[in-house]
Amino acid sequence: MLFTFFCAFLEFLTAFSAASFVLWAVLLAYLGLAACLLFFSKLREYGPLIWTLSSGIIFTTLGCEWLYAIHEEYGYLALRNICFQILSLILLLTYVKDKSDLLLYAWTTVVGSAGANLINFLRLRKYCTWSFTWRFSWQQHLLPILVLFANSLVNLLYVSADVAQLGVMTSDYYVGLYSVASKVTALLKQLLGAVIVVTVPRLACLYGQKGGEFFQKLARQIADLLVMLALPAACALFALGEEVVILTADLDFAPAAGAMKLLGLALVFSLLGWFYMAAVLVPARQEKAALLAISIASVVNVSLNFLLIPAFKEAGAALATLLADLVTCLACYFLAKKSARLLPSGKKLASSLLDCLYAYLVCQAALAKGLGPGATVFWAALWAIPGYFVILYMLGNRVLLEFKRGSRWE
């Protein structure tokens, strides 16, 4: 836990402060980590493993991935990651044979991230030059860093609360059910959330340079696009929850379908809350408002877990997450109203909801065929995905085309 704390702290220092400030912070973090290993005997036995994994901190700092994100070099970042992950996989399969090779496994993991960040460091001269200095304005950077770090820490507690409370209040069986459901929805969230990640630098630039009109236009298009993508994903998980669980885990985990359906619905609010927070509040320098929103949601989530888990087990934790994500979305929206009014378009929302009915009927038709889980999901996707976009186009919903045109600005 302490090691995770230091890594999270360094991640935010890397992203939001000057190079010399970051390097001093890295030194302090390593000293703090050394102190933890010195004074906590339970950690000391994992010393070699912890030091191996912590070697990635300095490479992450030097990699300055945030700089490449600002310049929207996502093609380069993707290619770099793929190459080093393949290298890491080759080393893993070559040298890691059994449980005694745990340290080797850690090194193969570090190689993937360290190598990628080393390439980043060597390419920095394309954009800037930097040198180490003893003089830096730590007062200017410290408060925003601490606010963003607190935001990250509260978010970590928010995400971890369900599993932790399930483990304390029930048994490992229900923790396993919830973990299966949450991993699938987390994967979908990361996939759909890529829309937010790749547009935040541009939105921040628009907000800072061209004023409200350009920012409002692109941000509304992103909100419409997120709704258009998230609604059918939630609908599919609601209709095919059991088949997806069996396909990704095993028949023994079929009871996790209820939790997956609820988390699928939560996906819509989670993505919109993420969008309002990362694409509106943070570029508008309202980090404290973002911290307030996620703090309120965390309190709601933990409180509802205490009420719902004893009666409904993993489904209760999923329902608490659904309600907490709704609170996050609403809180971020109302806090962001000062900077931008970005409710999704009513007409486009209506067309997406109507189209979700088609997707749901296709999923029900696939279930009626009595095929296996894999064939059912494949058959439903084969008909639902193309049909969804065709019907959207027929209903006059041109979100994808508008987003493509709107994202081109000089």
From TrEMBL:
Coiled coil: none annotated. The chain crosses the membrane at residues 12-40, 46-70, 77-96, 102-122, 142-161, 173-201, 222-240, 260-282, 289-309, 315-336, 348-368, 374-395. The keyword Transmembrane helix applies. The keyword Isomerase does not apply. InterPro entries: MurJ, PolySynth_Transporter. It is a multi-pass membrane protein. Pfam families: MurJ (PF03023). It is found in: Cell membrane. Keywords: Cell membrane, Cell shape, Membrane, Peptidoglycan synthesis, Transmembrane, Transmembrane helix. This is Flippase. It comes from Lactobacillus leichmannii. The lineage of its organism: Bacteria, Bacillati, Bacillota, Bacilli, Lactobacillales.
